[in-house]
Each structure stands twice: as C-alpha cells, then as structure tokens.
Amino acid sequence: MSPYAYIAPFFTLFAAFGLFPLIYTAFVSLYRVELQTPGDMEWRGLDNYTVLFTDEFFWISLRNTFTIGVISTVPQLVMALGLAHLLNYRLRARTFLRTAMLLPYATSVAAATLVFAQLFGRDFGLINYVAGLVGIGPVDWQTGTVASQIAVSTIVVWRWTGYNALIYLAGMQSIPQELYEAAEMDGASKWRQFFHVTLPGLRPTIVFTVIVSTIGATQLFGEPLLFEGSISGGISHQYQTLGLYMYEQGWGFFHLGRAAAIAWVMFLLIVVLVGVNALLAYRRSRKEAVR
Amino acid sequence: MTTLADPPVTPPAHPEKPPHRRARRSRAGRTNHAGKLTYAILAVAVLVSAFPFYWTVVAASRSNADLAQVPPSLLPGPHLLRNFEAVLEEADIGKALLNSFIVSGSITLGTVLCCTLAGFAFAKLRFRGRGALLAITVGTMMIPPQLGVIPLFMLIAELQWVNQLQAVILPGLVSAFGVFFMRQYLVQSLPDELIEAARVDGASTARIFWSIVVPVARPGMSVLGLLTFMAAWNDFFWPIVALSSSEPTVQVALRQLGGGYVHDQSVIMAGTLLGTLPVLLVFGFLGRQIVGGIMQGAVKG
C-alpha cells in the first residue's frame, strides 16, 4: 500500500469536518443565512460585521469574555504552579493525590456547571450559607455583574487548576537536578531556587499553558449557558461571553451569517492574543540570553 | 475496547525519577520530604476537587424541600432511587446514556485507528509532502473547532443528518492532537531496524503495520483512547447544536435539565450524577494512565 493510504482516512475527515468549516466560516460571514434554510445564501458584503460592531451586546460580551478570562485564568495558573511545586516533593500517596487533582478535569462542563449553579444559589446555596456564617452576604451570584462573573470563573478555575498543575509538574520534573544542586552549593535558599531555577526552567511550559488557557477563555460557552440556563447570559447580559453571543445569534435568533462573523472575530482575537503571548515570551527569553 | 484493559503503561518518557537520582539527591543533603504544611495544603486541594462530587450525591439523594432548608443538610438522604426514576422519566437520561456510549465508543475506536495509521506514516514512512502535511496538522491543533460550527452545521443540514448520531460521530473523529501524539509515540518507541528487518523478510507495509506497529503502539493507543473517550463523552457545543432532546447525548440531556424544563433541583442533581458516573468509573479504574498520558503529552507538546 502507498504511504498515502495510511494518512488518507485522517485527511479525508480532516478536510471535510475540520479544515473546510474553518475556512468556509469567513465566506459564510459575508452572506445572510437563516437557520431554517441554510441552503439559501444572500450576498451581504460586510453587513454582518457592521451590524455586529453597532450592537451594544457584542461589546458587552467582548468585555465579559475579557474580564471572565482574566478572573479565571490568572488564579488558576498561579494556584496550579503552587500545587505543582508541592506535588513535586517526595510524597506519600503520590498517585492518589495526582488523580484526585485531575478529577474535576474528567467532569463535563455541563455537569460541573449544574452543580455549581446549585452551590451558588442565592437563597439556599451552600456557598451563601457558609459566607453567612462568617457574616458575609447573602450575595446575589446571578444578578450582580462582578458576582456572577466570579461565580462563572470559579467553575473554570475548579475544572482546570489540577490539569495545569500536572502539566507544570511534568515540566518541573524535566528540569535537571544538577541545576538545583549547583544553586544549593551557591547557598541559594529554597525560595530563591524556585524563582531562579524552577521558574526559568518552566518558561516554555508556562507559555504553553497561558496560550491554551487564553484560547479556552476566548471561546468560553458552556459555563455561562448553563449557569442559569439562559442564552443571553443573565438578565442584562452581565456574564454573556462571545461564544454564548454567537450561539444566541445563530441558534436563538437564526442568523447563521452573523454568527459566522462572530466566529471569525473570535478567531482573529485568538490569533492576536496568541501572537502577543508568543512575542512576549520570545522577547523575554532573548533578553535573558543577552544577559 | 479491549485495549483499555491492558496492564499499566510504562511509556518511554515517563516522568518518574530513576532511583539513582534519589540517592544522589539525599547525598547532596536536600530535604525534599514533604512537611506537614505541604500535606495540609494538598489535603485542602483534594477536598475542593472532590467536594462538588460529594455534594452531587447529597443533593441527588434528598428531596427538593430538604435542599431549601437552612442550615442545609450535609449528609446523603434516602431519596436517591426516587430521584433517579424521576430524571429517567423527565429527561430520558436512559436513552442519552445509550447514545453517549454509542457516540463516544465509535469516536474512540475510529480516532485511535485513524491516528495510529497516520501517526505511523508520519513517523516511519517517506513520501512527498510529508513535512507540509504534518505542519498543517500540527498548525491547526490549537484552533478551536467551535469556530467552524456554522459551516459544519450547514454541511450536516445539507446531508440531512441533523438530529442523527453520525452528525456527532464523524466530525468527532478528527483529532490532529491524536495524529501528533501517535507520531511522537512511534518515533520514540519503534526502532527503524525492526521495520527494516521485516522488509528484508519480504513483509508488506500493511503486514508490518498490523503485526509490528500495532503491538508496539498499543500502550500509546490506550492512553489516546482514554483521553478521546473522556473528551467525546464531555463534548458540549457541537452535540447541542447537532442533536435535540429527541435524540440526546448525556450532555444534551443535561443542557435540557439545566434549561428550566425541570424545576426540581434534586432531580437535576440526580441526572448530573447519572451522566457523570460512567466517566468517573473509567477515571477510578484507569486514572493513573490518564494522569500519565496528560503529563507525557505535556512533555512532548
């Protein structure tokens, strides 16, 4: 058999269900396409984009995507780094600890969100009950902009912190032990070793996790959809993300063309964000090389 | 899915440290044993990880009135079976579970096969355009498929596949990560000499694939299979677009539960529990391999 026969099954599926939809999205975004009659396409030029940029809810969801992205990604990665550092000690029950950390990752977005929506209930939720014991609250986790975004971000943080901790742990274990020994001989404290050996050694891993989390945050969808079950992301769109806004336009209001325009905006946003990340990482590593 | 029952994987890039390094470490006088504080913090992290699961069991086994009580009850109650019955009736979780098994099982088998074939070609065969094709595959690995759902939906509508399981299965077979993962695995664990020796003996490439490549690749295939199964079971966006509540997967049914059709919180939690149980079982038995697969993928990626 020719070598091409081996790659043919993958590339046939890849072309039809992976590459084609991705590229064709840009094309569809220039047409008016209705959900019920996806076969009829009417040329509209850049209309979908103009409508988008004049829609207040587009800007709200763009801002929400950004703020939720920051509130969910930053604590997640910082805590993951700390946990990885602890998991890197010589531990009893090591396999158990690692598996337990990964448990949330095995849960679906839908299941996790339904449970957290219950925990974050305003009147009878456990979180408000515990907050009440220490004199806080009751917080309205659904209506308030900041509160609801924190609640939605909590679900993301819960699901992904353990996963990232294991990625960091793998990175830490590939740092040569000799570097720590040398640092120790120079009298560097544990704390200094962490900052001057571990962190630089982890840089490629950190860049990788930042990029993956950024991509995940840009297309956040299931958590805001199921937090209250509304496609507008709360009464005043207070936690609607771009992913949810796209779904609302396409499958709530039947404007597939406009949804495609949103998808394309998200794609460009990801390209820019990943580019900025990569550039920052590249410049920092060059600076250190010079030093 | 017999490959899943294989003995624990010991992949070549396994991150455990070899024993001699430990000895050297202690000679250097490093006290790398974890202290009490470390265990305490890790215990808190484990509790936070596990608590939502415990709470799901508690809420699923109580009546709705129990859940609207202050202070809330923190122990499981007697109503688990009744709530299961209710959710099986109201959201058709039974059909959803069956569909999810069909979808995730097919995706897992198909993906592992396609990715092993392509990974083998990229790792060990020479052909024109190999570098470029691999670059395209790896280059699109990071692009979220969610961005292509609109044309994909139009395609599925054209084929009249909306609300049919193949609409979810076929796109689910595309895994650029899987191809890259299997390629890396075979580059590291399949020596060229083995293939050349078989060629000298007159074996065809197809013969080589089935009797040499697949046995060597099996541990990698089972890790990829596990990761694929979990991802397919948990996939959310595309199934809710392509399917409806008359032909649901578990995630579609959970979306329906959370969409306000069912008001009984304890019934919703019972559905969540049923929908999560299968992956939790897989995770309970094969968690070590999944942890290994993720850490291994991290080192290679």
From TrEMBL, chain A:
Superkingdom as given in the UniProt entry: Bacteria
Identification of the protein by name? Cellobiose transport system permease protein
Q: Which organism is it from?
A: Streptomyces albogriseolus
UniProtKB/TrEMBL annotation, chain B:
Q: How does it sit in the membrane?
A: Multi-pass membrane protein
Question: What residues does the ABC transmembrane type-1 domain cover?
Answer: 97-286
Origin superkingdom: Bacteria
- Which compartment or compartments is the protein found in? Cell membrane
Q: Does the keyword Transport apply?
A: yes
Gene3D superfamilies attached to this UniProt entry: MetI-like
Identify the keywords attached in UniProt to this record, alphabetized: Cell membrane, Membrane, Transmembrane, Transmembrane helix, Transport
Q: Which InterPro entries match?
A: MetI-like (IPR000515), MetI-like_sf (IPR035906)
Location of the region described as Disordered in the Swiss-Prot/TrEMBL record: 1-30
Q: What is its main location?
A: membrane
Any one Pfam family match given in the protein's UniProt record, by short name: BPD_transp_1
Query: What parts of the sequence cross the membrane?
Result: 37-57, 97-120, 132-156, 168-187, 208-233, 267-286
Q: Entry's SUPFAM superfamilies?
A: MetI-like
Keyword Lipid metabolism included in the entry's annotation: no
Comp. bias regions, Basic residues: 19-30
Q: Which family does it belong to?
A: Belongs to the binding-protein-dependent transport system permease family.
**Name this protein carries in UniProt:** Carbohydrate ABC transporter permease
Source species? Streptomyces prasinosporus
